[in-house]
Specification:
Length: about 375
């Protein structure tokens, strides 16, 4: 295993993660502001059955693979578990703060379409009771469920890293695929709600059992990248061409450019990472990996890196301007295009403002 004692930030990864933050913000806006579909609707899934959320979760796993493999190699298992648990605690606390803040905003602003911002039918519940459900993770507001998902995955990350260091890759891959496959046919949330319908349990739109496969795949790749000396993905050119053809096929299918072919929704379902969606994501990721050596040293966007360095806070509080937009959308239904674009610009600016102030706070404490 190579000694990466001074493992540095990777500009390409920072730029990608920062770009994913912006894309996720843009993806969320039309849900509560339908007029934006005419302006930015073409950006959603523009590459195929793939959104920024899948890339964000995979990158989180990849970076975790790099960081926690290095921690175990240099400092041992004790430091590995401590680092992961502290990070999981920080994500949990930030999530609780963000989710309760969103509940307060929706209640205090009186947003009638709050179910679109907060996607909840439980606001009639008392504030304290609903907050306790958030704290217990039995109610996870839409758009924020990635945070508790990440938090829970970090709790098993040290064990996965240990297994990977021992060469038990197939066990991890098999377990992850088995859990993902089970979610394609079984919905645990529906079962829990059938047993306790009055509890109104919700774990958000994204299924933890399905989306874990993206994080685990990234974790395995990050571990392999740390352990390998140089690029470890080497395949014949014919394989790369085959993957490229498959990716182009998914692109054509997504945009309905192949007449006579209709893809069943369950195969590309985003909530449980349908089989074709997972395959499409794998193709695009593979193409990025095999071509990145040609451009990775030339991709470094400071603004996007700023978002990436403060990724937790940027994501946790990105819904605040979305809630304010929801208030505006209720008061005026028809907006000119320039106002649509202004809304998008202001919401994106909020991301950078959050990152800027968080970075100032970090610099002050250091």
């Amino acid at each position: 295993m190579q000694n990466n004692a001074t493992l540095k930030r990777i500009p390409l990864l920072d730029s990608l993660r920062g770009a994913f933050h912006i894309q996720m913000m843009v993806d969320h806006l039309p849900i509560i502001f339908p007029g934006l579909f005419t302006v930015i609707g073409g950006i959603y899934e523009c590459l195929g059955y793939f959104t920024a959320a899948e890339g964000f979760v995979f990158l989180s796993g990849y970076v975790s693979g790099l960081v926690y493999t290095r921690t175990r190699a240099q400092q041992g298992d004790g430091a590995l578990w401590k680092k992961a648990l502290v990070r999981a605690r920080n994500i949990y606390l930030c999530y609780i703060l963000a989710a309760i803040l969103m509940q307060v905003l929706v209640r205090s602003l009186g947003i009638s379409n709050g179910h679109l911002v907060y996607q909840t039918s439980t606001l009639p519940e008392p504030f304290v009771y609903h907050s306790l459900k958030i704290v217990a993770l039995v109610y996870q507001p839409a758009f924020l469920e990635i945070l508790p998902m990440y938090c829970l995955l970090l709790l098993v990350t040290p064990w996965i890293v240990q297994q990977l260091d021992r060469g038990n890759h197939l066990r991890i891959v098999f377990a992850s695929i088995l859990i993902w496959f089970g979610r394609q046919y079984w919905n645990p949330t529906a079962l829990l709600n059938s047993l306790a319908p009055s509890a109104n349990i919700s774990f958000g739109y994204f299924s933890f059992y399905a989306w874990q496969i993206l994080f685990v795949a990234g974790l395995i790749c990050g571990h392999k990248t740390y352990c390998a000396k140089g690029h470890w993905v080497r395949v014949p050119t014919i394989v790369s061409l085959g993957v490229l053809v498959a990716a182009l096929g998914f692109f054509l299918l997504r945009h309905e450019l192949i007449p006579g072919i209709s893809i069943p929704f369950r195969l590309v379902d985003r909530s449980c990472v349908g089989p074709l969606r997972l395959l499409n994501f794998a193709c695009l990721t593979f193409l990025l990996v095999v071509t990145k050596r040609h451009f990775e040293n030339h991709v470094s966007v400071k603004g996007l890196a700023l978002l990436s360095r403060n990724s937790l806070q940027v994501f946790a509080f990105h819904l605040i301007p979305v809630a304010l937009v929801a208030v505006m959308a209720e008061k005026k239904s028809h907006w000119p295009i320039w106002l649509h674009l202004l809304v998008v610009a202001v919401c994106i600016a909020w991301l950078f403002q959050t990152a800027f102030f968080m970075q100032m706070y970090k610099d002050f404490r250091s």
